[in-house]
Amino acid sequence: MVECGIDQWRPGEMPLPWIELCAAQGWVFVALLDERLVGSLTLVWDDPLIWGDRNEPAGYVHMLMVDRAYAHLGLGRSLLDWAERRITRAGHRHARLDCVRTNLDLRAYYENAGYALVGYREFAGKTPSVALYEKALDGTTSDRATYAGSED
Q1: Phi, psi of 105 (to 5 degrees)
Q2: 91 in any annotated domain
Q3: Predicted confidence (pLDDT) per residue in 37-87, tens digit
């Protein structure tokens, strides 16, 4: 992403132990086309680091990735649709995700997929500010109340 000029997570900002935990727990899902890895996402059931402690259950989508050679197929949107169905089957009414606040292309992508901006999360140090997005999966609109979390 850095080499392509994409303003998202940089090396070292995603803790390797967390990524290893997600893989070990079976929370990382991959998309294969003719046995070739073409995309993936991670789906977890809570996210206190980014979203803080939230009372209402939701599914949290992380690390949505698509091989650029296959992006024209709508694979990213298909992966989001799949995650939303899985979240609904688990009995949760909201899908949540986040991205770096300044990544305007990704933010527009999520908004075009039906996600509503609900706020921002600021972090101390070099970690970038993130935009928090939510999508109601029951046909209602997402809560647009501003969420202003911060970490000291």
Answers
A1: -65, -45
A2: yes
A3: 999 999 999 988 889 887 788 999 998 999 989 988 999 999 999 999 999
Listed residue (128, 125, 126, 62) closest to 98, CA to CA: 62
- Residue that is written with structure tokens 């070292």 in the block: 12
Cα Rg, the chain, nearest whole Å: 15
Q: Give the separation between CA 43 and CA 61, rounded to whole angstroms.
A: 5
Full domain range(s) for residue 146: 16-150
Model confidence, pTM:
0.80
Within a domain: 7? no
Strands (E), the chain: 28-33, 36-44, 59-66, 94-100, 116-122, 130-136, 147-150
